[in-house]
Amino acid sequence: MKLKLSILLLLCCGFMSLKAQTTITGTVTDDLNQTLPGVNILVKGTNRGVTSDFDGNYSIEVSKGEILQFSYIGFVAQDILIGDQEVLNIVLKGDSQQLNEVVVIGYGTTSKKDLVSSVSSVKSDVLENQPVARLDQALQGRATGVSVTSNSGDPGSGSTIRIRGASSINGNNNPLYVVDGFIVGTGFNLNTLNVNDIKSVDVLKDATALAIYGTRGASGVILVTTKNGTEVSKGKPKISLNHYYSVQEVANEIDILSGEDYVNYINEAGQFNPNLNNGFGGTDPTLPLIFDEPGAVETTDWLDLVSQTGHVMNTDLSIMGNSENSNYYVSINHFDQEGILRGSGLERVTFRTNLDVRLSDKFKMGIRLNATHYKKENNKVNYSNIVQSLLPISKVYNDDGSYNGVNPISSGTQRNPEADINLRVDHDLITKLISNAYFEYELFENFKLKSTIGAEITHTKYNDYLPGALPDRILNKGGTGYGKVATNFSKSILNENTFTYDVAADEDHSLKILGGFTWQKDNNESTVSEADGFPNDAVSFNNLALGDATLYYANSGYSQRTLASFLSRVDYGYKSKYLLTLVGRYDGSSVFEAGNKYAFFPSVGLAWNTSDENFMEDIDVINNLKVRGSYGIVGEQGVSPYNSIATYNNTINVFNDNVVNAVQLGSVPSDGLKWETTKQLDLGFEISLLDNRITFEADYYKKTTEDLLLAKALSAQAGGGTQLQNVGSIENKGFEFSLNTINVEKKDFSWSSTLSISTNKSEVLELDGREYIDLQSTGNQGGTSARLIVGESMPVFIGLNYLGTYKTAEEIIADGREGMSFIGGPRFENLDDNPSWNSEDATIIGSPEPDFYGGFRNTFTYKNLSLDVFFQGQYGSDIFNIRTQTSFYGRNEENLDSRVLDRWIEGENETSDVPRAGVSASLFNPNSTNNIEDGSFLRLKTATLNYNLPLDKIGWDNTFSAFNVYVTGSNLFLISKFKLGDPETNNFSAGSGFGSVSQGFAAGTYPYAKSVTFGLKMEF
Questions:
Q1: Does the pLDDT value for residue 691 go beyond 70?
Q2: How far is the first Cα of the chain from the last one, in angstroms, to the nearest whole number?
Q3: Bridge-partner residues for 774, per DSSP?
Q4: Cβ atoms < 10 Å from Cβ of 685
Q5: 410: which residues sit within 8 A by CB, 6+ positions away?
C-alpha cells in the first residue's frame, strides 16, 4: 500500500512539474525601442537557452520559479524571475559605461570595473574599413598615451609608436606586440595582419599592466586580439563579405620653385659680385647671364611626373560560428594597393583561422593561425632627392631619346626618376606564419592549468636590379648592370605554462592567482649576395654569376636569443570596492654576461570603487567613480645577441700589393652591463555621470629609466670600436584624458563623442657625468642638429639663432665679419668672441616633443544612416627641416623653395630677411632657428557615411542578415604651417640606435595620400 502511495505521489509531482512549465514569448529591444537580434536568453543554472531572432522575438520553455537571464554585448544583463507571465518583453539598457566590458591584460582578461591598471582599448568598430594596410596607421589618435607618427606615405611603410614617451638611447623604444597571446616582439611586421580580423587592441601603459612582461615592457605593450566565433549567437554561422575600393591622390603637395622662377634666381645669382661696394657685395650687370634666353629653357615638373592616382582594393571573406562546445572564425583577405608614386605598391593575401573546442567539462583547446604572403614594390623614386636636388630645368630625355642623367648646373651625374620607374627592379617578398595552440585543463574547481606552444616563422627575400640602361650606370659603370639578392629567415618558438586559481572565498572576498613559466627562443639567419658588371640585363638578379667575377660580394649572418621567465599575479578584491594587484616577473636573457642575466620586476596596484560606498547612494548624478594608483619596475633588454663577447667586422687590406680579406674590431665585450630599468608611478580616476551619458578618465604618470644603454666609441688605445655601457637616466611624465559623451539619444537620432588628449614631458636626468651627447648630424655641413642635454627634453634641436639678413655694411663691421659676410646675406647670432659661426654659438632651438596630442571622434546616427567623423592632431611640436640648408640659402645645383621669391633684391626688396641670390651659394651655413618649423596640425583623419539597408522593406531579409554600404574620406584636409608636405614625418629610422630618439626631422619623404573609399559589407 505504501509503495502504491509513493508511486502515486511521484506521478502527481511529475504532472504538477509538467503543468508548471510554460512557454514564454516576447521581444527584446533597447532603450530607444530598437529591436535587438541575437540576444542570449538562458535559463540560469542550466544549459537551456535560445537567442532572439532578427526582429528581436524569442520563445522559450521555462518553469515557474526559474530565472531567465538576458545578455547582449554592449548592454547591461538582466535576470527575470518567472512567475505567471506568458509574454515577457524586455528592454535592455545600453551599458555606455561598459563596466562589464572585457579588457585584455597580460595572460588573461578582466572586467573594466575590476581593472586596476591603466589600459587604453580600441575596438574593431573604429578599425574596420579604413583604407590602410597596417594596424598602426589605423591607431593614430585613437588611444591616450600612444603617439603614432607615420614614417612615410609609402604603401606598407611603418610608423614610429611611442607609449608615454621614449625612454632609451641605443636600446628599444618600440612597444612589445602580443598577438592572441603570442609574443611577437618589438619589431613585428604589422603588414602581416589583416586589420579587419582584429577584435580589439589593448595598450598596456602602467607598471601593474607591464610588469607581467618584465624585461620587454618598458616601452609599453600592445595586445592584439583577433575575432572568434563567440561574437555570434549559437546555431547558424555568420558569413561576411566586405569589399572596398579607394581612390588616392597626393595630399599636401610640396611647393618648390617653378622652372621659370628658378632660371630667374640663377641668373640673378650669377650677377652677384662679392668684390663690389668695398667687399660688401653687390649686383654686377656686366657679368654674363647663365641663361641668355630664360623663356626658352625647357622645364620639367618632376613631382607631377612621378605622381599618379593611386588605389586600394580590399576584399574580406569570413565565416564564424558558435555552438555548445566549439566556436570558430575563418577569413581570407586580399589587399592590393597601387601607390600615389608610380612604381610603388603592396599586394597581400592573408589567411586566418581561429578555433576553440571544449572536449569535456574540464578540458578545452584551441588554435590561432595566421598565414600571410605579400609583395611590396619598393618606392623606386627618391622623392626627397627630387624635392632637394632634381632641378626643374633637368630634362627627362636627351635629344637622342635616351634618359638624361646629368645635372645641368653642376654637370654631375644624377638619378632619373622616369628611368628608375621604368627600368629598375626593387621589391620585397615576405611570407609569415604565426601559429599558437593552447590546452587548458581544470584540475579541480576554479583551478586551471594552461599550456601554449607557438611558432612565428618568417621568410623575406629582397630583389634589386639596376639595369645597365639606367643613365647613371651608363655614365659611371659603362652601361653594365648590378644585382642584389638578400634573404632572411627567422624563427621564434614560444612555450608558456600557467595556472590560474580563482578563489571565491565568500561574497565579500575574491582572490585570483596567476603563476607560470615561459620560454622563448629566437633564431635569425641572413644571406646577401651582390654582383656588378652584368654585360646585359636579360636575367636581371636571377643569375648573379653573370656579373663580373672580380666584383662579387657575399655575406651571411646568424644570431640566437633565448629568454626564460617566471611570472605571477595576484588580484584581490573586497566587496568589489577595494582592489589590490601584485605582479612580479623574474626574467633571464642570454644576451647579458654571466652574473647579470637575470632580474626581477615587481609592481603593485590599488583601486577603490568609490561609487559602491554607502555614502554615494544618494548622489544620483554619479553612476560610477573609481580611483586607482600603481607603482612598479619594468625593464628593457635592448641589447643585441653576443654583446657579452667581442665582435669583429670584415674589411679589406692591401698586403704586398695584394688585396686580402681581414677583420677589424667591431665591439668589445660589455663589462658589468645591466638591464635598463623603468620605475613608473601612475595615478588615475574614472567617473561616469548622468545615467552614464558622460564618462571621463584621467591619468598622471611619472616614469624614470635608469642604466640607459649607449654604444660608446672607444679610443684607438683601447682598441677602437664601440662598447655598450650604462650611462644615465631619463624621466617621462604626463597626463592622459579621455572623455566619452552621449550628447543626444532619441528614438531615431543619436550623437556621441569621444575626446582623447595626452601630454608627455621628457627630461634627461644624467649622462654618466657628461653634459650632453650628440645624436645626429643632418649633413649639408650644418653641424650637429640633435643632442641629448642634461636637464632638457629628449632630444632637442641644436643650432644658431637666425637674425635675418645684413641690411648695411655697419652691421657686418659690428659683427667683425668683413670679408666673410655680405649685404643681403644671412646673419646669425654670435655668442662668443670669435666672429666665425661655429658650435660655440649653438643653442637649443627647438624640440620635436608636442605639448599635447590626441583625437576627437563624433558619431551621428539617424535611423539606418550613420556618420563617423574623426579628427587627429597635435600642438607645440617643432620640426627640423633638413632641406632648408640648400633650398633657402640657395645653392645653384639644388632646388629652391618658394620662400626665395621674397628674397633680398638690391634696390627692390632690401628689407627682406631671405638671403639674396648668389650670396650664400656654398653650404657653409650653420643649422639655425631658420630650420625649425611649427609641427602643430589638425587633420580630418577619417569621415565615414554608412547606410544599413532596410532588408525587410526591400524583401532581402531572407537572403541577408545585414547589408551596409559606406563611403569613407581620409586625410580630407589639414591645417598646418609646415612647408614641406605633411608635418607627421620622421626622416630617420625608428629602430634601435640614435634614430630611435632622433625624431622630428624632415627632408621630403614619400607623400601622404588623401583618399575616398567606397565599400559594401554583406552578412548572410
A1: yes
A2: 62
A3: 787
A4: 17
A5: 892, 893
Checking 40-45 for CB contacts under 8 A at 24+ apart, the result is 40/69, 40/70, 40/71, 40/72, 40/233, 41/68, 41/69, 41/70, 42/68, 42/69, 42/71, 43/67, 43/68, 43/69, 44/68, 44/69, 44/79
Amino acid at 290: I
Cα angle, residue 846 at apex, residues 843 and 851 outer, rounded to 5°: 145
The Cα–Cα gap between 1011 and 967 comes to 10
**What are the start-end ranges of the E strands in 11-72?**
21-30, 40-43, 49-51, 57-63, 67-71
pLDDT-based confidence at residue 129 (cuts at 50, 70, 90) = low
pLDDT digits (tens, 9 = 90+) for 892-939: 788 888 899 999 999 999 999 999 999 986 657 889 999 999 999 999
Give the pLDDT score at 19: 40
Q: Are the C-beta atoms of 214 and 635 separated by less than 8 Å?
A: yes
Q: Which of 352, 207, 293, 389 is nearest to 897 (CA)?
A: 389
In the DSSP assignment, the letter for residue 975 is E
State residue 781's pLDDT score. Answer: 62
What is the strand order of the sheet 21-30 is part of?
A: 57-63, 21-30, 90-92
Which residue, among 971, 985, 981, 974, has the nearest Cα to 310 in the 3D structure?
A: 971
Q: Give the model confidence (pLDDT) of 814-836 as tens digits.
A: 999 998 999 999 999 999 888 98
Beta bridge partners of 41: 50, 70
DSSP state letters, 202-218: EEE-SHHHHGGGGGG-T
* 350 phi/psi in degrees, rounded to 5: -130, 135
d(CA 110, CA 208): 13
How far is the C-alpha of 924 from the C-alpha of 920, rounded, in Å?
8
* Grid cell 569621415 in the structure block, residue: 943
pLDDT at 16 over 60: no
| The Cα angle at residue 512 between residues 49 and 636, in degrees rounded to 5 | 120
Query: Has residue 720 got a pLDDT over 60?
Result: no
Task: Give the pLDDT of residue 8.
Answer: 40
Which residues 6+ apart lie within 8 Å of 283 measured at CB?
268, 271, 272, 273, 276, 906
Q: Across the strands, what pairs with 755?
A: 739, 856
User: How far is the C-alpha of 141 from the C-alpha of 541, rounded, in Å?
Assistant: 42
Preceding amide of 926 cis, omega within 30: no
Parallel/antiparallel/unpaired status of strands 761-767 and 749-758: unpaired
Helix intervals (H) in 147-226: 207-210
Nearest to 459 by CA among 552, 524, 518, 539: 524
Cβ 255 vs Cβ 303: under 8 Å: no
pLDDT category at 15 given cuts 50, 70, 90 is: very low
Backbone φ and ψ for 543, nearest 5 degrees, come out as -145, 90
**Cα–Cα distance for residue pair 986/995, rounded to 1 Å:** 9
Rounded Cα distance, 627 and 616, in Å = 14
CB 707 within 8 A of CB 722: no
pLDDT at 4: 44
Provide the β-strand partners of residue 92.
30
Contact indicator for 257, 897 with CB cutoff of 8 Å: yes
* Count of H-run helices and E-run strands, the chain: 12, 55
Integer Cα distance of 922 and 991 in angstroms: 33
Amino acid in position 92:
L
* C-alpha closest to that of 188 among 198, 203, 178: 178
How far is the C-alpha of 402 from the C-alpha of 475, rounded, in Å?
A: 12
